[in-house]
Amino acid sequence: MRPSARPRALTAHTLGVRAAAAAAAAVTVAAGLAVRAGADGAFAKYAGSALYTVLLCTLVTLCAPRARPAVVASTALGLSWAVEFAQLTGVPAQWSAHSTAARLVLGSTFNAPDLFWYTVGAAAAWAVHTGARRRATRWHRAFTTCLRRGRRPGGGAPGQGRTAGRDRPQVRLGHGDIGGAGPVAESSCSRE
After folding, report:
1. What pTM value is reported for the model?
2. Beta-strand pair 172-173/185-186
């Protein structure tokens, strides 16, 4: 199957983003459980609120790996706020009384300061997602620049083993221009 004929959902980029999002979700759940077990009071409550939105960001990214960080963060924030405002109806409180899972996912009582901490969580997730996306883009540009120049990424002569830390192109921003896209990342490439 030609690379261009592959379904969009099965590209290496999409699979990599989904794997990173799944790992981030696991780390977020672990952090939330650690905060819940190790702290109490206002810190635990509001850290849990922020982590709730971070978890929603990872789940949105898992479902829509090509979505921009701002879209992911705003979607997660909207979902967090919707759950918080749903608590005004009393339905989540009824469900929470019968199920621990419902209590963890839906909460039980409305608390206005949670809205602020959801925003903090969304902003933190947006910052991490944006940074990771920029880093991946720089690395990808450096890698494809080497390939377009007919060189092997990472430096070194052909046939030599790669040394530690040189398995990726060494990226620095340059003023080169590929296809009119503006500044691109240059890399240490070796000739084949």
Report:
1. 0.70
2. antiparallel
